[in-house]
Amino acid sequence: MSTHPLRIAMIGTRGVPARYGGFETAVEEIGARLADRGHQVRVYCRRPADQAVDDPPEYLGMERVVLPAMRRRSLETLSHTALSVAHLVAHRTDAAIVFNAANAPLLPVLRAARVPVATHVDGLEWRRAKWGRVGKRYYREMETASVRLSDALIADAQGIADYYATQYDVGSRLLTYGAPDLSAAGSDRLAELDLTPGGYHLVVARFEPENHVDVIVEGYAANDAGLPLVVVGSAPYSEEYTRRVHELADGDPRVRLLGGVWDQELLDQLYANAFTYLHGHSVGGTNPSLLRAIGGGTSTIAYDVPFNREVLQEAGRYFRTPVDLAEQVLTAEANPQDTETRAGTLARRAKDYDWDVVVDGYEQLARDLAARNTPGPRPFARRRRRRVVRP
Fold first, then answer.
1. What is the CATH number of the domain that holds 172?
2. What is the CA radius of gyration of the chain?
3. What is the DSSP string of 300-328?
4. Do 288 and 316 reside in the same domain of the chain?
5. pLDDT at position 140, please?
6. Which of 14, 91, 129, 141 could form a disulfide with 209 if both were Cys (CB 3.0 to 4.6 A apart)?
7. This model's pTM is above 0.85
């Protein structure tokens, strides 16, 4: 097997440093490790709207190419990716990894330029409540286009891989995320927020309907839990949903709405010292926030979907409704020994999610792309339609 360094481009996210979500976390962790192994890694980055000066042109060994984007939810990602692809075509690479199937309209350009490309399809984007009928239809079509036009597909959870196998009869590379080891995170920064170790429940999520922050806050506010609820998160383009979350808190002094916390040291201490972590994500694959919580050895109550059960297994507690959430929080508080036992089990489970192993997979994928040793595009891929058997 060839071991020479490769030129690898990573496209379709907000870029690095990671300040937003799961894709950005993945790009930072994967890209930095690939660069450390001697590869030339180029990451296409968006300039934050509120940032006047760009970050340095290199970050953790990765080259940063900063390009603008249209500041509209429906166009931000695609407009930035279009500029990124134009730059990439003029600055060749051995392999490109495109994050988010929504960027599929740009894949024909990469194919015409003979740039081998893998698409990280993310979760089931068309199920996100923030998209209307037209948006949902667009994402379903782009899902199909990604299958047709990519040299390889990346799934970050077995449930996502199963979905593409069932819907399109195609295989994918199962490349999850890693869980950081937060056992040495410490707790000295908690005093800044008037918190103590084991003395609060925690939510960290973008404020979007499919992350169920509203369900968590509603369920918590309706019960008589003794520990406060700390909510970390916000989101652009989500004013109405953010307002709903605040209304559900309804001035309850136990609910602490912190907004975004970008201080990674403080955030890690929040994860590692929470009594429970409440995870409402429902349509993505393996979620980095969930892995960070179990990497901190924190007992977790998660929205009941296969992606979350795949990670937490029997050590997790699960909810679907505000009533479920309230019951699970009270059960956790009433049974601290069981909660601690579950936390220990999850800390051991976190060791199954190793970033170095994940990067082994990405490195092999990049070599396969460069060598054209992938399935290639599937021009006749179609979603399978379920047959209705009538009585």
1. 3.40.50.2000
2. 21
3. EEEESSHHHHHHHGGG-EEESSHHHHHHH
4. yes
5. 87
6. 129
7. yes
